[in-house]
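Supplementary Methods S3. Complex input for the NAI-bound model.
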Amino acid sequence: MHRITLIPGDGIGPEITAAARAVLEASGVKISWEVVVAGEKALQDYGTLLPEETLASIQRNRVALKGPLTTPVGSGFRSVNVALRKEFDLYANLRPARTYEGVKSRYSDVDLVVVRENTEDLYAGVEHMVGEDAAESIKIITRKGCERIVRFAFDYAVREGRRKVTAVHKANIMKCTDGLFLKIAREIAAEYPQIEFEDRIVDNMCMQLVQKPELYDVLVMPNLYGDIISDLCAGLVGGLGVAPGANIGRDTAIFEPVHGSAPKYAGMNKANPTAMILSAVMMLRYLGEQEAADRIHQALKEVIKEGKNVTYDLGGQATTMEMAEAIITKMGNEPS
Ligand code: NAI
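Predicted complex, serialized as structure tokens:
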């Protein structure tokens, strides 16, 4: 039995997490859910975006499935996602991007995974004004940060049967910071002779990804490049509706779609549950439930390919739950 923290989230979050939960339960994996709140819902109920109870639940269970959260604008609140990343030192942001037959995209054979460092770089938040007309931001890159993210990328490649890791950087210009990242990436690569290794300068990487994404496999990079390139990769495969993600640390992991809470669709039962279900599939793999993960993934691929029971953004008319039920039926189960 896996004990998992479930954060339904805001906007479309409750609907897509309900869909993902139904699919997971139909897979036969034994899960005991601990449902807690964060975001707008938590602000209403507890007066804080991230209640202690929610943190304690993740602390206890070490695995969470999370719907998107609405970040209130202009009220001085920091992002809950950043707070969670810091609290549990979730240093690796994992974002797979793959083409699915039936999802509109200019490409047909993309299967990439972006491994983004989540804690350092220009996102460390060390910036200040210099007088009134200049500003400085400090880019922090450490040996520890580089070693653990590059090792994570190689371990992931080995575990998932991937063939190549590409390190992305701008070491030709930022010789200290990105130079250190590249140097360490080369050192770690030598420990994994079975996995091919190469590096690309970030601007060239963007062009290559647009021109021939099929040449790439696992990409590892510092925080800022990862933020930008993972969105580029989501764009290659048809956008946010099909982009899952995970934030992983040494002993804790939080799985969530890349997209936000799409407030304008809240409560309409029409949001695409795919990114949420794919995030749940990543969670099953993390938990060692490969067979159930494969079965859900296969059923999802078939439903998308058939295009009959898919949501509006994939060209269909199904509701969120109807799409989930079609996946459950495809797995050989009766939807309950
Ligand atoms: P968004 O991702 O919610 O929406 C962008 C566009 O994509 C909208 O047109 C939306 O309708 C569409 N979309 C997103 N997910 C979809 C789905 N599953 N099915 C169909 N269409 C979908 O981004 P936006 O509007 O910038 O942000 C809305 C809220 O979400 C904000 O409060 C933002 O802070 C928050 N957000 C939260 C994230 C998280 O919790 N991880 C990540 C990104 C944004």
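The chain has a mean pLDDT of 95. Residues 106-236 form a domain with the Isopropylmalate Dehydrogenase fold (CATH 3.40.718.10).
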